[in-house]
Amino acid sequence: MKAVICTKYGPPEVLQLQEVAKPVPSDNEILVKVSATTVTAGESLVRRFAVPLSYWLLARLAIGWSKPRKAILGMVAAGEVEAVGNSVTRFQRGDQVFAYDITRFRTYAEYTCLPENSAIALKPSAVTYEEAAAIPYGGITALHFLKQGKIEAGQHVLIYGASGSVGTFAVQLAKHFGARVTGVCSTSNVALVKSLGADQVIDYTQEDWTRRGETYDVLFDAVGKTSFPDCLKVLKKEGVYLQPLAAPALSLRMRLAGVTSSKTLIGGEATPKTEDLIFLKELVEAGKIKPVIDRRYPLEQIVEAHRYVDQGHKKGDVVITVQQSNHI
């Protein structure tokens, strides 16, 4: 089968399309014929080995010394179940599924094996595999942090980076939960964020959102580019700060600030859960939320896709079409 191999750490050109052996599912795994995957910021970071200096040694030992130990990157997949292991009970051959696995990788390939107990669900009906692939990463991350922050109806939520993969879902999910949403993005993305339901959109290139005199119940920095002190200033006394990309230094500052104030400061990594995928699937089917796709690339153009994501300005998701499918 065709797969993209990360030959070493470095620029997008380290990714090479090669022929590799088709995987065989173990007893607890399903074999998925991958129709679509995505290029997330996470895979870009792994490819570049862009980790904080304080994590350097541990990360090299965990991920790989001179190149990723798991040579085939990719955490998201949408496709059809081609085979199941002897112990699998949740899925059968022919099921159309979508999945998000942050531990196994291996979705930049025509086929991948996934444990049945990982975050896998039947894909939403009436959406394409490409659209289904654009749901798990941003959707699960946004949902995880909004739930951690105990979002409630009537709260005023500010989402910084509202046009990205996580931000587009955070806007829609916050509205679904009954919040009043202010999105922050650049000029070219204002119309998109408004179309997703934001009550107010601030163009950060034209206005300093920290000096508007408003305070917020929840501040969700979806892209990790805000000033932490500025965020604390615009949070209400019992406000919640959400940061899915907190580096060690920021995590320490958050812990210290949490001890000395009544604000709730939440960072870390979202753990993919099947129940969250099912929740997102149901909202998509009900027309309550929708995935946003910026660009589509064939697997053969994975280098170009990574090059685009590295620029840091994508809207929603960048989807990779792995194999053409006749199914919706």
From TrEMBL:
Q: Cite the Pfam families for this sequence.
A: ADH_N, ADH_zinc_N_2
Which Gene3D superfamilies did the record assign? Medium-chain alcohol dehydrogenases, catalytic domain, NAD(P)-binding Rossmann-like Domain
Instruction: Tell me where the signal peptide lies.
Output: none
For this chain, one GO molecular function annotation is: oxidoreductase activity
| The Enoyl reductase (ER) domain, residue ranges | 10-320
- Name recorded for this polypeptide: NADPH:quinone reductase
Q: Which organism is it from?
A: Reticulibacter mediterranei
